[in-house]
Design brief:
By secondary structure, the protein is mostly helical. It is 44% helix and 0% strand. It is built from three helices and no strands. The protein has helices at residues 2-20, 24-38, 81-88. The longest helix has 19 residues, at 2-20.
Length: 96
């Protein structure tokens, strides 16, 4: 386990020393190129309309009840099991 930690530290150290050893001129050129090319990006339009603009069309408000589809599930007296079974069974096919 200690060998694995040592190997990871050595790998990070080698990358870090390469980054620190970059010449200042190369680093400045990279930063300047990044900034110059950053100005070439297209201007993006906002994804949404400005919420402070009163002329923006909005969807009409509507009311939907959250409990409208409610049906009572109170216990009822049992009915004849044969009739209930016939009510939910598929219709029979007489053309077999």
């Amino acid at each position: 386990m200690f060998a694995l930690i040592g190997a990871k530290i050595a790998a990070v150290r080698s990358v870090a020393t390469r980054l620190v050893d970059m010449r200042p001129v190369a680093l400045a050129a990279t930063v300047a190129a990044t900034l110059a090319l950053g100005g070439c990006l297209p201007v993006t339009a906002p994804l949404r309309a400005d919420p402070a603009d009163p002329s923006v069309p909005v969807a009409p408000m509507s009311y939907r009840s959250t409990v409208a589809p409610y049906t009572s599930m109170r216990p009822v007296s049992p009915s004849a099991w044969r009739q209930r079974n016939d009510d939910v069974s598929p219709s029979s096919k007489s053309s077999r």
